[in-house]
């Protein structure tokens, strides 16, 4: 339990996809209602914390439990800032199944502000338009769950899937003077050899098998700086997470 003023904020955190206000009442969507009723086994009178991405937390109490719906009374709002001072964007070559889920989950826990999945030449995942939309919805749900667990009140957005080439063409226009980094196990420089970024960081990590030499050269031509993490080759689901943790230690709030 966390204490804010006269209110005790429980550690059970639930994302609510809509407006929240003190003294209001909300009905949880079916997915969240199912989680509270059937997984957490909460009853009327139990206290939870709600958040909707507006950077605040809302103390709430379950007022009524129906067959498949949970009604909550919002009692108090508290502005809580848990975001990293380092603005981080992860551009991740799409990997298979639980590997991509792991990358999304852990990058959100580590404070990434946004995630851009990209299709690369060596990537083994191929998506049509419908499958891409389903994947984005799934990864966004993973990101929300990671926020519930980690205490973040801002939900990082997972951008629509695009090709590596399409992203690369416009990345500078979208991210301004951010430092662009490209993970490369054979790069001459390490993170510790780079100056502190002034305008955030954009990190590009490849899929299983990494980026092709052509993709790496294209990234460098478009202003991405190759960096390596130690002397060992890391798996795709390890590389981005390790790099984000190292950057938070060097330049963020670790």
Write up what this structure looks like.
It is built from six helices and 14 strands. It is α/β, with parallel strands linked by helices and 254 residues long. The strands form three sheets. Strands 8, 9, 10, 11, 12, 13 and 14 form a seven-stranded parallel beta sheet that branches. It has a five-stranded mixed beta sheet with strand order 3-5-6-7-4. It folds into two domains: 2-79, Hypothetical PUA domain-like, domain 1 (Ribosomal Protein L25, Chain P), CATH 2.40.240.20; 88-251, Alpha/beta knot. The mean pLDDT is 92. The protein is elongated. The protein has helices at residues 30-39, 97-109, 129-150, 164-175, 213-221, 236-251, and strands at 2-4, 7-9, 13-15, 25-27, 47-51, 56-65, 70-79, 88-93, 114-119, 157-158, 162-163, 179-183, 201-205, 225-227. Helix 3 links the parallel strand 9 (114-119) and strand 10.
User: What do we call the CATH homologous superfamily of the largest domain?
Assistant: SPOUT methyltransferase, trefoil knot domain
The H/E string reads: EEEEHEEEEHEHEEHEEHEH
Tell me the CATH topology of the largest domain.
Alpha/beta knot
Q: What is the count of DSSP helices, taking H or I runs of 4+ residues?
A: 6
Mean of the pLDDT scores? Answer: 92
Approximate helicity band: 25-40%
| Helical/strand content category | alpha/beta
CATH architecture tag of the largest domain: 3-Layer(aba) Sandwich
Give the number of DSSP strands: 14
Distance between the termini: 23 Å
| CATH class category of the largest domain | Alpha Beta
Rg estimate, integer Å: 20 Å
**Sheet with the most strands?**
7 strands, parallel
pLDDT under 50 segments (min length 5)?
A: none
| Shape by Cα distribution | elongated
Number of domains: 2
Q: Which percent range describes the beta-strand content?
A: 25-35%
